[in-house]
Amino acid sequence: MTRSEALAGIALAPLAALSACAPTESGVVATKGSSLRPTAFGSQLYPSDDIGRSIALLAACGSTLLRVTATKGNFDYFDALFVAATAQGMRVIVISQYAAQPVDLTAYAADAVAFHRRYAAHNPIWELWNEPNLAAYWLAPPDRYAYAKLAIATATALRNAGAREILSGGTSGVDVSWLYDLRLNGVFDVVTGCAVHSYEKPALALNEYIQAISLMPPGIGIYTTEACVVTSSGQPSFFQDMWSVHRYLSLPALVWCEFRDGTAGPAPPYNDPMGLVTADYIPKDVYYTAQTLVTNA
């Protein structure tokens, strides 16, 4: 079977799965899913977010995950973050740092291992690069084969250092073609999970998730390490539908892309923000939607 034939078959996979569904007006089945296969909820945090206030609010929302980017020389921040997260029963997803291209694989893996050893007692989850399928984040034209080499080298080093959960780098969109090539190149033989990002309507994302699931070898789950929309796009309804997609498919994680307004977005000055809370840490409607769904899952 050729690559194009395989991808064509994957594209048809959702049709049979969806034929038995009774979707709502949004096109998404509202469900709590199986209690035996829960979905962990969490949010991205940035160094400008107050650790104490942010983690307390996330804990009250049912969060069990935080997501941050590893950087050198900011250990006071990470020390405090890991202690506070662990005290609330949360685990931290660590995105491996960006690096200039071409990447020195040996040095890159060594930096990740050093970071892991510092925080090994907190059992971090690793995500190998953020959106490597975009030039803006890969820092060069995207190269799935170069990325596969980096992922395999870094994941192997981290596993040898005792890391238990390692995700492939979250793709911009559920990029089935990219994921297919990662599987062909052995990435999912080394990592323990596959990270993706989704910002589109959950009814459309559902098809893509089913395609991605069909690509994965046994034991490799699909983790959404970024998903959200701007405030004006109807955050509560987006969250409700995306949560239903995750529960319907028993996906292991859903991470909101921005905890506090003003730290991320399409472009500064972020006047149509994506956060769960305002810049002053006041919960928004989407926060209460998430709290109700997550704590009653």
* CATH fold node name: TIM Barrel
Strand coverage percent: 15-25%
| Poorly predicted runs | 10-23
Instruction: Trace the largest sheet across and list its strands.
Output: 1-2-3-4-5-6-7-8
What is the first-to-last residue Cα distance? 41 Å
User: Approximately how much helix is present in the residues?
Assistant: 40-55%
How many strands, which pairing sense, and closed or not: the largest β-sheet? 8 strands, parallel, barrel
Question: What is the overall shape?
Answer: globular
Q: Round the Cα radius of gyration to an integer and report it.
A: 18 Å
Please give the CATH architecture. Alpha-Beta Barrel
Number of helices: 10
Structural class by secondary-structure content: alpha/beta
Order of helices and strands: HEHEHEHEHHEHEHEHEH
Into how many domains do the coordinates divide? 1
In CATH's first tier, which class applies?
Answer: Alpha Beta
Oligomer: single chain
Q: Spell out the CATH superfamily.
A: Glycosidases
If you average the pLDDT, what whole number results? 91
